[in-house]
Amino acid sequence: MSSIKKTLLYVGIILGIFTLARLMLFVSYNDFFSDLTLSQILYSFIHGVRFDLSIALTFLIPAIWFMNLPFKFITSKVAQRIFGWYIFIAIVAYIHILVGNVLYFDHVKRHLADELLLLKGDKTFLFEMVAVYKLETVLGFSFIGILAYFFRRVVDIKVEVNKRGWIIFAGVFVALFLVIRGTVGTKPISLVHAYAGGNSKEASLTLNGVFTAYHYGRRSKKTSFNFYSDEEALKNLGLENKKFPLLKKYDGKKSNYNIVVVMMESWTPKYIDSYSGKSLGITPNFDEIVKNGIKFENFYASGQRSIEGIQSALTGVPPIKGVPNLGFGLEISNVTKLGKMANDNGYETIFMQSSKRGSFYVDSIAKSLGFNKYFGMEDMPPILDYPDKKGAKFGWDYELYMKMFEEIDKTDKPFFGFMFTGTTHTPYPDLPKQFEKYEDNKKIESFYNLMYYSDWSMGQFMEKAKKQKWFDNTIFIFTADHVMAHYQTGGFKDKFKIPFVIYAPKIFTPKVENKITTQLEIMPTIIDLLGFNNDFYSYTDSIFKEREHKAFVNEGGLFGVINDSGYMKHSYGNRLENIGKKESLDTMEKEILSITQVTSKLIKDNRWAK
């Protein structure tokens, strides 16, 4: 037998074990997977191979490489036993994780995440689990013993050097690279790719515990937030101590309004005349919208990255240290799926960004949240004559707006559209001469010109929209993902303050709101405006509900809260920066530590949402 054939035999054994674990999961929790169709089940088993091979081969690279080197000594009995038993040890580790994952699934109805990191060194807990699952432990070790008996025969199979040795070795190198990446695209395979079908149960059957534990664990930092008892932490946030403390429901009447949310890359109040009071003149179209809409003066982003803004707006989950963001592991836990909710209420759901489809994994994120249409840069060929023939790295806003108009105008159902612009993201592309309002010296004036172009693109979209029958019944929400980091000055609050305007001249009277509001309120607000009576899960409420208003914000590894009395930035160990009276600061500290503890626990226990 050649080395490559023996390699494939090992891979086949490993694949069989992962498939058997998937079958165990399916059989053990048949009630959970009962609403999957036969085609979805088959797809999960087939698609799951991609994830199985990716993670299994990640830890077998040394053995597979050396096994296929075109040298005679590689075929010796000693070398083959070293390679073979190395692979067997990895298989035993996989079996332990896969079996543990099947048992763990019963508790939280999701795969392992970073629980393995938390268990490391906790021998007492591990022994307790062995005592609880005696039968499963005995069966597991029996299976390993039987496998070892037969595996020994495979290990001792004599091999020959591959014919065309170096060509085969090069082929193995390339194959390993592609299989472990799981794709030929720019982004390697990730947890969110399993959710691209929009069905979380199908994704659960597709994934395996080794893959989720590894990818979730490496995305999250080892954290253990136990500042208060669980009951006290919930009480600090005004929540009841129940299984799903964030459960909410509105009893409104379905409105059949249309909703279009525009999240604008890096739009910052200091460069918008209607917010700053300046006369830069680079956002005339948006300034007109602000004048005729509901303007929120004190609206705050949840973080400083685009994905944190998208996550907060569409799921209501704040970005928290130790909890991976949407697209990087959060999706394995249950969250509110706004796209699916709108679909269930008869809406056409459209998600698009000007960047490439896979940027930030947004293509898979959109599908995982239930949006039935998704478009990226590849779907938006240039309309204008841009001097930068290679195109903007994050796409052109004008083409994005025109694509959204095209998709909206051809639907005969109420619609929910979400747009994420990108032209104002660095690196700044060259623009047609008509948009060079300021002399471009590659400093702040470049951004001014791009804001002017982006604003013009918005204006073109709104002018076309105003001529359509659906305009009078449509609510437009304009906001940003985060502030522009470059050239930014100011205090703590200025790092998060972004524009937010609700514009619907036939529905709302223009006014200015000064209350503190946040991206976390976007999802509840949409549910409220559209009159959905579905269950949803959130710390916050609709922006129109009367209550105490505050904003929780994430600055890298630090967390903070902003309210009417001041603000606080915290390191989870110390107060780093704060303004306010002592009593207020004590309350803010409790809220910061409690929301971190509760969010982390609810996500890890899969109790954020049902």
Total DSSP helices: 20
Number of domains: 2
Which stretches of 5+ consecutive residues score pLDDT under 50?
none
| Percentage of residues in DSSP E strands | 5-15%
- Report the mean per-residue pLDDT as an integer: 91
Structural class: alpha/beta
- Write the CATH architecture name of the largest domain: 3-Layer(aba) Sandwich
Q: Indicate the CATH topology of the largest domain.
A: Alkaline Phosphatase, subunit A
Report a brief summary of the structure.
By secondary structure, this protein is of the alpha/beta class. It has 20 helices and 15 strands. A hairpin with a 2-residue loop joins strand 13 and strand 14.
Features:
alpha/beta, 44% helix, 2 domains, four-stranded antiparallel sheet, Alkaline Phosphatase, subunit A, nine-stranded mixed sheet, 20 helices, single chain, 610 residues
Can you describe this structure?
With 610 residues, this protein is of the alpha/beta class. The chain has 2 domains: 217 residues, no CATH class; 345 residues, Alkaline Phosphatase, subunit A. The chain contains 20 helices and 15 strands. The strands form 3 sheets. Strands 2, 3, 4, 5, 6, 7, 8, 9 and 10 form a 9-stranded mixed β-sheet that branches. A 4-stranded antiparallel β-sheet has the order 12-13-14-15, covered by helices on one side. α1 packs across α2. The chain is globular and about 80 Å long. It starts with a helix and ends in a 6-residue tail after the last helix.
